[in-house]
Amino acid sequence: MLLANYFQTGWRNLLKNKLFSLINIVGLAIGLAACALILMFVKHETSYDNFWQNADKIHRSHVTFSIPGRDPMHATSAPGPLIHALKKDFPEVEYATRIGGWGPTINHNGQVFVEQIKLVDADFAKMFSVDVLAGDLELALSDNSSIVLNESLAKKYFGDSNPLGQVLSLDFNFFKKDFQVGAVIADTPRNSQLDLPALILIDESAWEEQNWMFHGWFSVNAQLYFQTQQASDLDSINRQFDDFANRNFPKMPIGGDDAKASDFIKLSAMNIQDLHLNAIGFGEMRPQGSKTTVITFSAIAMLILLIACINFMNLSTAHAANRAKEVSLRKVLGATRSNLITQFLGESVLMTLISVLLAFVMVELALPFYNETLNQELVVSYDPSTIATLLGLAISVGVLSGLYPAFILSGFRPATVLKANKSAETGASLRLRAALVIFQFAVSIGLFIATSVVYSQMQYAKQMDAGFNKDNMLVVNRVSREEASNKRELLLKEIAKNPQVTAITYSNETPGNTNENNTMMRTPEMAEEDALLMGQRAVGYGFFKAYEINLIAGRTYDKNRADVSPTDEQLRAGEKFPGSIVINESALRRFGFKDAQSALGKTLITGRGDPEENLSVDLTIIGVVDDVHFNSLHATIRPEVYPLSADFGNSISVRFTGSPEQLVKDVETLWRQEIPGVPFSYSFVEDNIAELYQSEQGEATMFAAFSALAILVASLGLFGLASFTADRRTKEIGVRKVMGAGVFDIVKMLMWQFSKPVMVASLIAWPVAFYFMSDWLEAFVYRIDTSLIIAMCGLAALFALCIAWVTVASNSIRVARANPIKALRYE
Amino acid sequence: MITIKNLSKRFTTEEVETTALNNINFDIKQGEFVAIMGPSGCGKSTLLNTLGMLDSPSEGHYLFNSEDVAGYSESQLASIRKKNIGFIFQSFNLIDELNVEENVELALLYHNISKSERRQRVAEVLEKVGISHRAKHMPSQLSGGQQQRVAVARAVVGKQRLILADEPTGNLDSEHGREVMEMLQQLNKEGTTIIMVTHSPEHAEYADRVINLFDGEVVVQDLRAVS
């Protein structure tokens, strides 16, 4: 009966104070919805690869090359021979498998496809608890002529017919081979760093000619996973890795006689569940997550919820004045304090439950945009555990934010309240409210600063001159496949004829392609062991002109001059003649040349062929070009050389004007006609560059959105609070008006009242925001000036003041314009 | 000082029109002490608010120092009000968040007076009403009588020539009521014009003249009319 009464008063109170209820419910719903969205993201990000049966015992080895004068190079792949050494030296390693990738062409029923095939070792089947849908995985990975397909590929090639025993013919460019489907596995879940569309057993003998693939100690082409007997074995293996590297790696050609492998090479291993958020380096199969993002988003979720709870507390206590009479009457009629606390807690839980329902609606509405921005496929799962969690969250939020108001309200003394007909609010509760408002503003200001710094850095990255023209550049891929390679000259000539095309070139790498390719180089004056590690990108004729890269001195490659260096075969046959080389400004400095002009005509020596052959070639510097950002601004520009690749290139780059669609159509028609055996593949440089920042961009957008939400929720609360405060001060304002204060004086006074917390909040937020944001910027090699953060701080405070003023102004003006006698008479 | 001619005040709501003051006429001279009496709802407070320029008449003339203010705008009224008129309320109307000194200073705050002069005048007037030892106390720490003394101090600190008191003793016991009345009498002797609304015949005795209102009309306007 009492409960029904509570519910009735609660419900009526909710309806009676519409503004108060609306702000509380909507504010809390936004808070809960934002929190739920973020938690879904965080849950997904932290669940990577934890579904493997032996997840705690499966680890991946990483390698870092630290070469003097260069940023350390982190790879998530390992040298091919490492697996054998690992199994030999560490008895605690039970199983190990490499997972390398290759994209062979598959000719099937007259159609050609290119598929990502994973090359694995036989232990794979014992380590990874993949869902086998048909066939025998272990059997399929025990012979080198079987292939394992995932469900999607099996459907793609064989439809509804049984794929087992069917044959696919794979062209690896270096060799062709038929494979029989031995098993079908489920598609790899989204929350895995692994991507396993198809598996075949590594047959090292098939790759003998490409010995860098599985035999080179200084070439990393496949990831290496191993399973230990105990989860704790990882630590001891990590501790022994230096000695292990010194025992197994061949002598590096640098550092002199005393140098050890561990001076330049650091091996490490990480548990598979940690890879998504913690691994550093190139060579991942799927995009990585960011631990910073997960932590930041979690923090924002907590803050938004906290702000919404504070609103609830502040508005409830401010609102208390209006309910003092009810409380007192209930007490006079025999209610105990605990009765009242139960009543008020019940009311706040009722409000949170309504918020939860609203929050669900908000989440469902926001999810498509959220997924698109973050490139995720998150869904709300309405299973009992999720619902229980959310209800639990709602009830704890309700209790948490209702507890303080409940204690304040239930503490009113009826005699005082009924006699004076006013609230008995204490100074302590007023001070607490002021402190909470300051906290909300500090959070809002901090988030504003953070968002604007992130946004500025993004803009900076977008607008920074990368050193080449990324617009209107089409990249045609797969040019190095045998069939296409044979027709390269024809392609170049035919595409160039298109009236849309203004320049054309070919190269091994294009901007946005983050492959690490390096070579040792020295001047004739340098000792062999002092040779320097240079990044290299092989380019074709016309590369610099097509990409509009600035030439500082000299010239670029010219078909009519003897720029081509001798091939390995020519060198083996004893032919020795110099080739040409173009270098960048960083390389110029690294070699110690005085300036670009003086470097021209100088010789650089580099090794060729297999190390034991001891072949070398002399290259004459013919040109020096500007430093160019081929990769994201996270990385410094490498000292780089651009050797001429006269008759080989992975891709053709086409500079064009006019409609990209038309050009793609024309080029595709030409390609299909000339190279029917290789599927056409293209991209635009602009998109490839944008892709480098895609996840950052999405996260920055979400960060901005969540910050805006936090600020919105805080403003909602402030609006409610301002309206209560203005009402509470009605009498004071009346007295002041009688004393001669004008409307402007009153508005000014109320505005100032709300400006003070903003200023105090600014003083709190500034140093914190500065600390975190300058730290965040550190991750970018090329970044906005730190002093810009200070400007953002000022801007944020101004912004917060404006928000406070706008929020407070409407209430203030209303109260200030009211006739004072009313206020004074009814007091 | 004040001449009221044919003054009426009507309040209109959606359904009814109430005549609070109906065709009122009287004069008040500089230095007079006038009590306004009458039963509840007779229009005393409305009259006082009109005299205090917190409310405008619906009809008639209100000559304040020979100036007809009846049609003045709110800001014009506010300007005359703050120079000339001090208010004392039944419920004191002190601001809870300000201490005694600050409450009194409030009346000078909107007058372009330097801080040092404000401080000096506040100190003088607190001395005068005998509450200077409580200058730093908050209103809640004072008795009703003390609070009303602060309100009196606030009403006169601006050297206002007219004080409007709306039942200044209504919330006080007889002892404190008498104190406040003596204080008002003293101010009147020093030249301040006082118009006071009261229910108490005893306190009306302090006035030179009583205006009796009934249903919005002046029924008796005579010295010691009630005695």
UniProtKB/TrEMBL annotation, chain A:
<keyword id="KW-0812">Transmembrane</keyword>
<dbReference type="Pfam" id="PF02687">
    <property type="entry name" value="FtsX"/>
</dbReference>
<feature type="transmembrane region" description="Helical">
    <location>
        <begin position="432"/>
        <end position="455"/>
    </location>
</feature>
<feature type="domain" description="ABC3 transporter permease C-terminal">
    <location>
        <begin position="299"/>
        <end position="410"/>
    </location>
</feature>
<dbReference type="InterPro" id="IPR025857">
    <property type="entry name" value="MacB_PCD"/>
</dbReference>
<dbReference type="Pfam" id="PF12704">
    <property type="entry name" value="MacB_PCD"/>
</dbReference>
<feature type="domain" description="MacB-like periplasmic core">
    <location>
        <begin position="21"/>
        <end position="242"/>
    </location>
</feature>
<feature type="transmembrane region" description="Helical">
    <location>
        <begin position="349"/>
        <end position="370"/>
    </location>
</feature>
<feature type="transmembrane region" description="Helical">
    <location>
        <begin position="390"/>
        <end position="412"/>
    </location>
</feature>
<feature type="domain" description="MacB-like periplasmic core">
    <location>
        <begin position="442"/>
        <end position="629"/>
    </location>
</feature>
<dbReference type="InterPro" id="IPR003838">
    <property type="entry name" value="ABC3_permease_C"/>
</dbReference>
<feature type="transmembrane region" description="Helical">
    <location>
        <begin position="702"/>
        <end position="726"/>
    </location>
</feature>
<feature type="domain" description="ABC3 transporter permease C-terminal">
    <location>
        <begin position="705"/>
        <end position="820"/>
    </location>
</feature>
<keyword id="KW-0472">Membrane</keyword>
<feature type="transmembrane region" description="Helical">
    <location>
        <begin position="786"/>
        <end position="808"/>
    </location>
</feature>
<dbReference type="GO" id="GO:0005886">
    <property type="term" value="C:plasma membrane"/>
</dbReference>
<dbReference type="GO" id="GO:0022857">
    <property type="term" value="F:transmembrane transporter activity"/>
</dbReference>
<protein>
    <submittedName>
        <fullName>FtsX-like permease family protein</fullName>
    </submittedName>
</protein>
<dbReference type="InterPro" id="IPR050250">
    <property type="entry name" value="Macrolide_Exporter_MacB"/>
</dbReference>
<feature type="transmembrane region" description="Helical">
    <location>
        <begin position="21"/>
        <end position="42"/>
    </location>
</feature>
<feature type="transmembrane region" description="Helical">
    <location>
        <begin position="758"/>
        <end position="774"/>
    </location>
</feature>
<keyword id="KW-1133">Transmembrane helix</keyword>
Automatic annotation (TrEMBL), chain B:
<dbReference type="GO" id="GO:0005524">
    <property type="term" value="F:ATP binding"/>
</dbReference>
<comment type="similarity">
    <text>Belongs to the ABC transporter superfamily. Macrolide exporter (TC 3.A.1.122) family.</text>
</comment>
<dbReference type="Pfam" id="PF00005">
    <property type="entry name" value="ABC_tran"/>
</dbReference>
<keyword id="KW-0813">Transport</keyword>
<dbReference type="GO" id="GO:1902495">
    <property type="term" value="C:transmembrane transporter complex"/>
</dbReference>
<dbReference type="InterPro" id="IPR003439">
    <property type="entry name" value="ABC_transporter-like_ATP-bd"/>
</dbReference>
<dbReference type="InterPro" id="IPR003593">
    <property type="entry name" value="AAA+_ATPase"/>
</dbReference>
<keyword id="KW-0547">Nucleotide-binding</keyword>
<dbReference type="GO" id="GO:0005886">
    <property type="term" value="C:plasma membrane"/>
</dbReference>
<dbReference type="GO" id="GO:0016887">
    <property type="term" value="F:ATP hydrolysis activity"/>
</dbReference>
<dbReference type="InterPro" id="IPR017911">
    <property type="entry name" value="MacB-like_ATP-bd"/>
</dbReference>
<dbReference type="InterPro" id="IPR027417">
    <property type="entry name" value="P-loop_NTPase"/>
</dbReference>
<feature type="domain" description="ABC transporter">
    <location>
        <begin position="2"/>
        <end position="223"/>
    </location>
</feature>
<dbReference type="InterPro" id="IPR017871">
    <property type="entry name" value="ABC_transporter-like_CS"/>
</dbReference>
<protein>
    <submittedName>
        <fullName>ABC transporter ATP-binding protein</fullName>
    </submittedName>
</protein>
<dbReference type="InterPro" id="IPR015854">
    <property type="entry name" value="ABC_transpr_LolD-like"/>
</dbReference>
<keyword id="KW-0067">ATP-binding</keyword>
<dbReference type="GO" id="GO:0022857">
    <property type="term" value="F:transmembrane transporter activity"/>
</dbReference>
